[in-house]
Amino acid sequence: MLPVRRLLAQPRFPSFSPARSSSNSSHKRYDVIVVGGGHAGTEAAAAATRIGAETLLITQKIQTIGALSCNPSMGGIGKGHLVKEVDALDGLMGRAGDYAGVHFSILNRRKGPAVWGPRAQLDRSRYKEFIQSELLNMPRLTVIEGSVEGLLVSAADPEQPGKHRVTGVRMADGGDKILCSSVVLTTGTFLSGSLFMGRTTSPGGRMGEAPSCAGLSHSLKEVLGLKLGRLKTGTPPRIIRETVNFSLTQLQLPDPQPTPFSFINTHTHCKPEEQIPCHLTVTTPGVDRVVRESLPVNSHVQQDTKGPRYCPSIESRVLRFPGRQHQVWLEPEGLNSDLIYPQGLSMTMPPEMQLRLIREIPALSQAEIHTPGYGVQYDFVCPTQLFPWLQLKSVQGLFLAGQINGTTGYEEAAAQGLWAGVNAGRTALSLPPLSLSRTESYIGVLIDDLVVHGVTEPYRMFTSRAEFRTSLRPDNADLRLTPKGREEIGCVSQHRYQEAVRVQQGLTEALSTLNSISLSPPCWREKLSDVGISENKSTLISGEEMLLYTDVSFSMLASTFPDLLSPYLEFAERIKIEAVYRPHCEKQQREMERMREEESLSLPPDFDYFSQQVSLSNEVREILDRARPSTLGAAMRLKGVTPAATVHLLNYVTKTDRKTRGK
Amino acid sequence: MSLSRCWRRALRMTAVRLRVRVRCDSSVSSAAGPVDTIYALSSGQGRCGVAVVRVSGPAAGGALRSVAGLSRALPAPRTALLRSILNPQTNEVLDRGLVLWFPGPHSFTGEDIAEFHIHGGPAVINGVLQALGSLPGLRPAEAGEFTQRAFHAGKLDLTEVEGLGDLIHAETEAQRRQALRQMAGDLGQLYNDWSQRLKRCLAHVEAFIDFSEGDLIEDGVLNQVDLDVPQLQMEIENHLCDERRGERLRSGVQVVIAGSTNVGKSSLFNILCQRPAAIVSPIAGTTRDIVETSLDIGGFPVLLSDTAGLRDTGDCVEKEGVRRARHMVELADVTLVLVDSTQLPQEPPMVSGFLREYLMNVLPSGNNYKQQRLLILNKIDLLPKEHISAIQNVLTQTSDLAPVCILSCHSREGLERFLTLLQDRLKTLCGDPLAGSPSLTQTRHRAHLQNCVEALNQYYQYRNVDLALAAEGLRLGLSSLGRITGKVGAEEILDVIFRDFCIGK
């Protein structure tokens, strides 16, 4: 998939023309410069300004800011968690989704609130419209069109870890130098990107747009000496809507009542009845046949660059699981769009074979292709070179977010963008950088996985990656992150904060009121006759405990005790979830606290693991030296680091701590 | 106070209140968040009259009351009390011994501690450990956990902390070897098989959670899991009930004699057992299989093994012998590396290089710490005196090898010094209560299996209500099994998912 907008191509404009403000933007010094206007870049720029940093966003074309380059949808299982968390930290994505969504559904509705996946089909133009109007009206943010050719690098500040220091960017075509304290790079698939269709290969990061300048790649690889890797992805052909025979597909309706992504929205822009459906169809043996015929003329498939295992092209699906029916989702591209996005038919064969392939599917037997599918291969920066605050360990002031770190997906990009923006802003304003823990957020899980283990394939979020899944639910992202976002991070508005406070107080009060209601089993049986309370039960049961029964809802209790409970009816669903999950979350508390404690012990980034100060085996020394974990917690998650080694490290950290405190 | 802290505190207060209600009669330690209570044998093994079992954590008081049959009050702090020690499930009297009560924070770990001073026999110790394991909230301590808790409570001074890493290393190593010995047989295969099957169940449930609905997954996925989980649970339960379960438990410090052929390994073996247990001949390759015997050396239980000489050979029987010998060395607590001193280089400066290479050959894994091996130069009766002192000179200047003994099995010269050195090693090893105690490993395994069975119940409880919580039960079960067979990470689960399913979106 190609979620992140390209930005580093040669400018279409002979010299970049500022869109908003700043005929003198090139002479001004900024706190933060964000390169790229995709999901990572827009969140980064918005977050940096929320922190209070004077920010410049450089994008190739202002009109493509906030474009959805691949699938016209967002959220889903695991990814929906990320959207809720970005929103809880006052990011753009959740609200943009509520504005642009045309088909809302909560996946996994029957599988428990911890794994609910809020998801929406989006109208591409509405999404873009929302993001652009937000960014272009944001105080402290300047947006210009242009292309960055290289980074300005100087000697490192000796007080801080790192070998270099970034001081600004150099624009392409003999353009100006623009100075700043922090740079956030969000170049998506454009870093040495090449496009594949059939046997043809051309440089570029996205079809129809110019390739990026070699300068930036050169800066990263040669000047800064970073380790790069290569990954691949792809996108399906777009099909003309009126050529599809929908009568041969299965209708997929949205939820009758759309649930907004954002905690501060009570409803979505799209009215329930205005939502539009999706359609489902399946592949046939003919599809298998075309795939096999296409292999000799399909160079993308023959490459052994790593692609994602979970979002495979139709070619790799057929090759890995031959003889099966594969699902194809026909998704609308928007309310007024003539195009259909066939989810599941990402392909890189020559265009004439693409047409043959889709016509093997009965519903598409007359279909016409508007734009053919293609593959992309691109460079990424091995993310183990990053601190958990997404700054490169070796370059002061340089932050990376999105596909450049080896991830895939809009939501993954947005989450990193937000966090990189927060820290780029904080660093520029001389505030200490921050990291999010695995124990408090999926964003923390995502970043920790990236910086500790690196990637071998494009990284996507799954709920099974979060060991504290029971506690990190989409419903409570605001309670987990919004207060912290205001009080510690500084990226949350007063308005949102107050709303979170109100919700928090409401929930706390509701739960303690529930606990104040305590009745004997016969009393409960009398009040709620349909609930099967066990005959053996003889102790008093509190209102909260009653909610543990599957068929007891908060509104049932509220109608039994209207005076006490009806004030909290707006939180009915959340109270039920809190009550059911509380015992399980408490079980995880101890382990979460231990992990937090371990993560609070930082290891010096320039620590000499080969020195004799700590006694470690040579094997462990090498692992630690290679990975350079930022905290003791991260060190413990590395394969091959023994309990004994962690204790030695712990001793070392505590000792140095005491020494510094003694000073 | 910050808002988030407010919320967390509110939750925690409720949690604390709940706990207080549940155990209103036990003294709840002031630590925030629930803490496990751990127990372990904390005295050494060997010829000891008294064994000490220690329990630390919030449930220690409760444990003391139920095992010592105290109905109400706890003993006065730090005062010994003579009680019958009971199995609280069966009320069977296990022993009569002293119990002590150290309420936190004035204890070694800063938590509540109960101590049981009981008779040193393995049956009594096992009985008490199993009785403790049957109490809710108690689990066997991990390596070095008592010391670690003391460290976190600020009860150790810096020099003691220095030693903590080494202690944990020693304990984990000892446990690892002990577990390896037990896991090598059918038992290991059984546990690994369970772990594999549970991993697959979890992966399939996770696939159903993370992908399904319009993605890929056939509805039948969970049906298979619904069959597999109870089957697995039943097998583990049967195993726990099976009184014949244990493989023969072999107590003692595992001492292995290894080296090239014809260096006198079997002679040393026979000297140590004081009878001609192994055949000795001048023919290289006489010993082909492991010869094993239980001994008492200086009061310490030892399991001594003689092994085939290490050499490349075409003989398939001897080849197998060499393979077994190498395996034995892997499992050893102490390796006696034997060298024929007549084979040493003539030039004394070359000796240390030769020995270093020799050691590398016998102990290629490098896993064995210096203190776990003794280098023995045999047959010194065949060398001139001045040559011996030249060698001794060189060796005193080389510190990185291993402790060296120079002796002759034939003339028995140097044997006394060797025995003293060996006894010192045994003393250190036996002082560590975890080393070489199979029953303890077994208790630990049983506790983990029990936890696994209980965690699996959560799967049924939530299977039709909340699949995330059902999966959590499988995860907890797998992590309990993982404490025996090795941890299973999120990536491995994903690997199974992508191997077994074609994921669409």
UniProtKB/TrEMBL annotation, chain B:
Regions that span the bilayer: none
This protein's GO CC annotations: mitochondrion
MF (Gene Ontology): GTP binding; GTPase activity
TrmE-type G domain residues: 252-427
Location in or out of the cell: Mitochondrion
Superkingdom as given in the UniProt entry: Eukaryota
PANTHER family assigned: TRNA MODIFICATION GTPASE GTPBP3, TRNA MODIFICATION GTPASE GTPBP3, MITOCHONDRIAL
Protein name: 5-taurinomethyluridine-[tRNA] synthase subunit GTPB3, mitochondrial
Species of origin: Astyanax mexicanus (Blind cave fish)
